[in-house]
Design brief:
This protein has 348 residues and is α/β, with parallel strands linked by helices. Helix content is 49%, strand content 13%. The strands form 2 sheets. Strands 1, 2, 3, 8 and 9 form a 5-stranded parallel sheet that branches. A 5-stranded mixed sheet has the order 4-5-7-6-10.
Length: 348
């Protein structure tokens, strides 16, 4: 068996927004629905997430199968509140070495392409949470939807990360099209893992590609019949290795020289879709305009509210392609009304 595979599971949760109208601006109405959000979390968590996490622990501790997890800040916070038992199980599994946690942004944000200052802040907040919750220090990094460029790699190197996932540009690879492990342009010792965006098809159909990196979110895991089913099928074609083992087993790599950000979303998203969608584009620009004024206040509540509003899911709701209960323009209006209220709070 000459194929190798590394698996990463991605868990995030976004708080529901209040139906914020023009008439709510300036009246101290909350932006989020905490009770409904917690109920939504528990429905999803008890319905699938908990089982998947327990399967991951079992596979890593009993079947010697390496698996990496990205857990966003909100996901960890809610899991700690409602299921401390699983937190303890993960913490024990981490000490055995086959289960690992990925660094990331606390709020699963797009800060890496809009504000490096917030990007670094969000990463450090996530690092502190992993340390306080799991007593764990991460070596490898999952950026939101695998956004990558040279500057992002340089920033992560300064923060101590040994490697990160990246979107794949097939035409750029040219003769190296079957390679999936590179190094950062300015940091030869920093690994870059190119994601398979085909839901594992190349693992079974491409005999020339020997190294594979796959990510699964809960919805995709469910569509494949669960984590154990994925692992069982994958083992028929590849030896499952940790990211660290992939690096150790690779002698020579070439630089992945990407000057402008690219996205490697397992959901088929692209940066072009954000830039071409007028609602998303404007909302993102208005959101990041508030960064400096908000941070100058040093107000904990304002800082928390603003950072929480940076989750990518809020902007995806402004796309017609998302499965949603509100029309994109209606959701956009709610979000912009919240930002206008934020502006008024800053004036006061």
């Amino acid at each position: 068996m000459n194929k190798t595979l590394s698996l990463a599971l991605i868990f995030d949760f976004t708080y529901s927004l209040e139906s914020f109208t023009l008439f709510d601006i300036g009246h101290q109405k909350p932006y989020f629905k905490p009770i409904q959000s917690e109920e939504n979390f528990m429905i999803a968590y008890q319905g699938q997430h908990r089982e998947t996490l327990h399967e991951a622990v079992q596979l890593t501790t009993q079947d010697d199968t390496p698996i990496s997890l990205y857990l966003s800040g909100s996901f960890i916070t809610l899991m700690s509140k409602f299921d401390p038992e699983t937190i303890s199980l993960i913490k024990k599994a981490l000490k055995q070495g086959k289960l690992s946690l990925l660094g990331g942004t606390y709020h699963h944000s797009l800060a890496s392409i809009y504000s490096f200052k917030e990007f670094i802040s969000d990463i450090k907040t996530h690092q502190k949470l992993l340390k306080s919750t799991f007593d764990y220090h991460t070596s490898y990094f999952y950026n939101t939807e695998n956004i990558y460029c040279n500057d992002i790699a340089d920033t992560l190197h300064e923060l101590g990360y040994k490697g990160l996932f990246a979107g794949t540009i097939e035409w750029y690879l040219w003769k190296n099209k079957e390679m999936r492990l590179f190094h950062a342009t300015n940091q030869p010792e920093q690994s870059v893992f190119l994601l398979d965006n085909d839901r594992g098809n190349s693992l079974f159909s491409d005999p020339d590609r020997h190294r594979h990196f796959l990510q699964f979110d809960p919805q995709t895991i469910n569509s494949f019949g669960g984590l154990k089913s994925i692992v069982q099928k994958a083992r028929q074609k590849a030896k499952i290795l940790s990211l660290n083992e992939q690096v150790i087993n690779t002698q020579d790599t070439t630089p992945y020289n990407i000057k402008s950000p690219v996205m490697g979303s397992v959901r088929g998203l692209s940066l072009e879709s954000f830039h071409s969608n007028a609602l998303q584009n404007r909302a993102l620009k208005e959101y990041y305009k508030l960064e400096d004024p908000v941070k100058k206040t040093k107000d904990p509540d304002m800082l928390h509210d603003w950072a929480s509003l940076g989750n990518i899911q809020y902007f995806l709701q402004m796309s017609k392609d998302e499965d949603q209960h509100l029309l994109p323009y209606d959701y956009y209006n709610i979000y912009m009304n919240i930002l206008n209220d934020f502006t008024l709070r800053l004036i006061k």
